[in-house]
Amino acid sequence: MGAPTITRDRVEALVRATLSLHDASLRSHYVATTARSWPIETLARALDCLCERAERAEAPAREVLVAVVDALNEHEMAEVVQRLREEAVGASLLALERLIRHPSRAVSVGPSEERSRSCDDVVRADGGGRSLTLGQRKWLSRRPDRHVIEQLLRDPHPVVVAGCLQNPRATEEDVLRLVAHRPGRSDVLAEVARSRWVHRPRVRLALVLNRATPIEIAVRISGLLTRPELELVAGSTGAAPALRAVCLEHLERRPPFKRHARTSVSTRTPSRPNLH
Description:
Blueprint: H1 3-19, H2 24-37, H3 40-55, H4 59-72, H5 78-90, H6 94-100, H7 111-118, E1 122-124, E2 131-133, H8 134-140, H9 146-152, H10 158-166, H11 172-180, H12 186-193, H13 201-209, H14 215-222, H15 227-234, H16 241-253
Antiparallel strand pairs: 1-2
Helix pairs in contact: 1-2, 1-3, 1-4, 2-4, 3-4, 3-5, 3-6, 5-6, 8-10, 10-12, 11-13, 13-14, 14-16, 15-16
């Protein structure tokens, strides 16, 4: 068999295996494990083919791309992402390159944010003004207390925020307030992008529109946006120019939006957003 046939077979196998799993975290883990086990050339060509299908709005490919983005956003995948980036540029894998592009960063951490980072060791998080250590705040972030969750979502330490994001009592409105806050904090926004909340369309769009979101993460998430969302980001003066350029590239390849042809991905996997 020729290389294109082998690549198509690999993609079909990846799609079937990923969609056979009904939990988002299992899908992400499977994709990450597969990515580490395949030769980088094979992986790059398979993901490029998958990205091309997703850009054509093929439903299975777009659903699997969610798991791919989840996997690539993890800390442990940084080396794999860099090798994929080099392979995509060297082999002219344009669809993959759009997904994992890393434009130069234009956002810096301001003085007020630096001051908030310096107080990571203790914050006052209870009604009496008692100082709480990082360990205590991490423990409290897992407690089913709405008031405490609302307080700790403003914590300067991303590990505490990550605990709140996993708390069953946290709501989408809580997360939206966190993501929409200006000035944003890159490390905190990255934790949101690695959480289950990134599958919510409003949270996903808010992350992309916040210039403090790490640009490489925002670029990857932009590959999951619907056509109306891409148009919104591309026309937003608040979005980073490099991100707007990527969204325009996606728009050029995305089929026209047809409301009557919409198919809800959430009917197959409730934790997944509609990606059409």
